[in-house]
Design brief:
alpha/beta
């Protein structure tokens, strides 16, 4: 902790910084702190430069469609230049694939379009690199993938490029970093590592080389059994939200804020109908980019057959010769409407199908409160219309159909950006609907560990009687003092719809006071429109009570995020 005098001096300095200056300062202070951890506490004159005799040259390439990757790459290039690197900024739309053979350090920022496809202007590069037959063993690289977790093939383009660069012999010196729609904080953390890994892997480095993993570790898979499943909504509700408890014999390693990942299996009856319709032998072994296995195993466990991507449908049309409009459709319906000629033609189609995507659910349990052999998730059963037919989400339908004793395989997806602060720090949690899940985890954890920080929850849903998820637990947390304050909004209980952002407005002065006194702020739930509406309200609160302009209010939230005091888990 700083003394009061130093803290006031720091506040005065930060108050006069621009957005770019604040970003640069945060990196400078972080590096300075790391330097102080060594033997000497004298800041070297060339602190902002890379320690090697000559500044290293890197290429920072971006692939974009909406402009986010370009904007981010430009910002990060400026930061890296101030740290002493020579940065060549380039657009993958104009980049010549053969020039990869000339690169020593190559870092990529690339977005993924809604259905797992590369940006339109990047498709040439994407295609060429997957057809390349040369070696780039001299190259060291890292990939930052931008995406949107609400889509099934989250960050697929970044994953594909990261894997293909390794196939061509390049050495991965930064593990693939996948960023959701709110990517800024994760992107900065990724960029902060670049000067260090460049220095460690440079041929000119003057210190011993540090071993850097060339690939991200494989996900740890857990085998568990469903020990409890309860519908949290009342019988009168038009929603179904399930609290699911899973027990394992093996200890589960996770923290509050993490997510549980499940790769759903396809319905056996759908798989059987596809096999019957095409006449293919289910035991035929097919090689796909993901895995080599029998047709039946591929369709049951590994391939997406529910709602095909536009790219997949275009490839299907090319193989079969059918003229197919841009539609979202399952493989089974596609085969019914635009049939294949025979089993041999269908064999050509199987390798173009994409891998089954994992579904992520925020963990709603606490290892301290519930033990290390038990984990909970909160799952809303997804229902939607295709034409006039009601469909159910593949994974939520699977999970909601579980009964006690059913087996389930899962893994843990770390969420390092969505962590509890120190036990004595206050937190404000905004989580309507299933957004309550990680905050149930937070409250149980803080209750079990006796954390002294105050906890304020904003929760909302449709009706108080039918949709107040975890109501009895929340009331108990209030009684025991674990939950300091609770504000709820039930949109269909009043003539005028009330949402969580309206409750924030009502408590705006107090919210700002909590933030000024060091509280951490969290949002979880639907990205649109909830998160955008809540964030807009927060900026208005900061403008009003902090007497700041709109731009200054945006910078206020950005600085909170950079300092790890503002985190979002939205979908």
């Amino acid at each position: 902790m700083l003394s009061e005098t130093k803290l006031n001096e720091l506040k005065q300095l930060l108050g006069n910084l621009s957005h770019e200056e604040a970003l640069w300062t945060s990196g400078y202070i972080a590096a300075f702190a790391e330097h102080l951890g060594g033997r000497t506490q004298t800041l070297p004159e060339n602190f902002t430069t890379v320690a090697a005799a000559g500044a290293q040259k890197i290429t920072l390439a971006y692939g974009t469609e909406t402009g986010n990757s370009k904007k981010l790459a430009t910002e990060l290039a400026g930061i890296l230049k101030k740290k002493g690197l020579k940065v060549k900024l380039t657009d993958l739309a104009q980049y010549k694939t053969k020039d990869l053979k000339k690169e020593e350090f190559f870092f990529v920022i690339v977005s993924t379009q809604g259905e797992g496809e590369p940006p339109l202007l990047v498709q040439r590069f994407y295609k060429e690199i997957h057809q390349a037959d040369f070696s780039i063993s001299q190259m060291k690289y890292g990939v930052l993938a931008l995406g949107d977790r609400s889509y099934p093939l989250f960050c697929q383009t970044g994953e594909d490029l990261d894997a293909q660069l390794e196939v061509l012999g390049a050495q991965r010196i930064l593990s693939l970093r996948k960023c959701d729609a709110d990517y800024h904080s994760d992107a900065l953390h990724w960029a902060e590592q670049i000067p260090e890994v460049v220095q460690e892997n440079s041929s000119e480095a003057v210190h011993p080389k540090v071993d850097v993993p060339t690939a991200a570790p494989a996900r740890k898979k857990y085998q568990g059994k469903v020990s409890a499943i309860v519908n949290l909504n009342d019988i009168d509700s038009d929603k179904e939200t399930f609290h699911i408890e899973i027990e394992t014999e093996e200890e589960i390693r996770y923290l509050p804020g993490d997510a549980l990942g499940i790769i759903p299996r396809n319905p056996p009856e759908m798989v059987q109908e596809i096999i019957t319709l095409t006449g293919i032998d289910p035991e035929t072994v097919i090689e796909t980019p993901q895995i080599t296995a029998s047709v039946e195993e591929l369709f049951l466990k590994h391939l997406n057959i529910s709602y095909l991507l536009k790219l997949t449908i275009r490839q299907y049309a090319e193989i079969t010769g059918h003229s197919i409009p841009e539609i979202r459709i399952s493989l089974l319906d596609l085969l019914r409407i635009y049939p294949v000629r025979n089993a041999e033609e269908f064999k050509e189609i199987i390798p173009v199908l994409t891998a089954q995507s994992p579904r992520l659910y925020s963990v709603s349990s606490s290892p301290e409160a519930h033990g290390s052999n038990e984990i909970h998730i909160t799952v809303a059963k997804s229902k939607f219309l295709v034409g006039e037919e009601v469909k159910t989400g593949l994974c939520s339908g699977l999970l909601s159909g579980f009964t006690e004793g059913d087996e389930v395989e899962f893994y843990i997806q770390e969420a390092r950006h969505f962590r509890l602060p120190e036990p004595d720090r206050d937190i404000v949690m905004i989580g309507p609907g299933t957004g309550i899940a990680p905050f149930r985890s937070f409250l149980w954890e803080r209750d079990a560990t006796g954390a002294e920080g105050r906890n304020w929850l904003f929760f909302g849903d449709r009706t108080f009687v039918s949709d107040f998820l975890y109501q009895s637990e929340i009331i108990d947390f209030i009684k025991t003092g674990t939950l300091t304050q609770l504000d709820v909004a039930f949109s269909r209980d009043t003539a005028q719809k009330i949402y969580v952002q309206h409750r924030l407005e009502e408590k705006s002065a107090e919210i700002f006071e909590w933030l000024e006194n060091g509280a951490s702020l969290y949002i979880c739930g639907a990205k649109n429109p909830m998160c955008k509406d809540v964030e807009h309200t927060l900026k208005e609160i900061i403008q009003k009570h902090g007497k700041r302009s709109q731009q200054e209010a945006e910078e206020y939230l950005e600085i909170l995020e950079l300092n790890g005091r503002y985190a979002k888990d939205v979908y």
